[in-house]
Amino acid sequence: MAKLTAKKCENFVWVFFLEEGVLPAGTTRANILALKVSDLALDDPPLPGDPHFQKKKAARRMQIWFLAMGYRLPTPLPILRDGKKSLRQLAEWIREHHEEARDG
Fold it and tell me: Is the pLDDT score of 43 beyond 90?
């Protein structure tokens, strides 16, 4: 199985965050990649005991989605914690770091 294309990784980011319900009002397929991670409604407001709880949850759910598609993805949590990163950068990171899951 080949790696996902850049376009498929961008589409994944769109569908994932749309499904998570964390996109700001006015987000469209045309402008999503320009959003910064800090624009998402993740950990807003942060939980006192775990300020990155929703980011950790989103990172784990991304990994689960990739496993369901037959790929492995290292945790994207460092990208999600960096509010200056764009969703385009997240999609590029996903493209570079996912790999085919191997049985056994």
Answer: no
Asked if 57 and 32 touch (Cβ cutoff 8 Å), the reply is no
**pTM, entire model:** 0.93
Cβ-in-10-Å burial (0-12, 13-18, 19+) of 28 comes to exposed
Q: Say how far apart CA 33 and CA 49 lie, in whole Å.
A: 31
**How far is CA 36 from its chain centroid?**
12
- Two structure tokens written together for 87: 């969703």
- On the CB side of 35, CA atoms within 13 Å amount to 25
Q: CA–CA distance from 4 to each of 7, 24, 66, 98 (Å)? A: 8, 27, 10, 8
